[in-house]
Design brief:
Layout: H1 6-20, H2 25-32, H3 36-48, E1 52-56, E2 62-66, H4 68-101
Antiparallel strand pairs: 1-2
Helix pairs in contact: 1-2, 1-3, 1-4
Length: 102
């Protein structure tokens, strides 16, 4: 398994929160496939950037949710990823065509 870049880790955390809604740190870590030691600094940085917010529930638990700007950013990352995949696919098809013609 390839190691994920720092950007990929940040995107993974943001996407989980944007898609699944408010989650506690354990649920978020499990869904993003990270451990507590990895996820805590990522959450702090994303909160400092204003894309994730910490919410304190009445029962005393803490959950993390995407802000509106975090939702937009998550959507933009998905669109960029889809565009990149299409470009990569197009390049692969072109390479296959060239291989067949030569």
């Amino acid at each position: 398994m390839m190691r994920r870049s720092k950007l990929e880790l940040y995107i993974a955390v943001l996407n989980v929160v944007a898609i699944r809604g408010p989650l506690n740190i354990t649920g978020l870590a499990l869904r993003a496939r990270l451990n507590y030691k990895q996820i805590k600094p990522i959450l702090n940085n994303l909160m400092n950037k204003g894309v994730i917010q910490e919410q304190h529930l009445r029962n005393g638990s803490v959950v993390y949710a995407a802000t509106p700007s975090g939702q937009r950013l998550s959507t933009q990352f998905k669109q960029a990823d889809e565009s990149t995949s299409k470009i990569a696919l197009t390049n692969q098809v072109r390479q296959n065509m060239v291989a067949l013609l030569i």
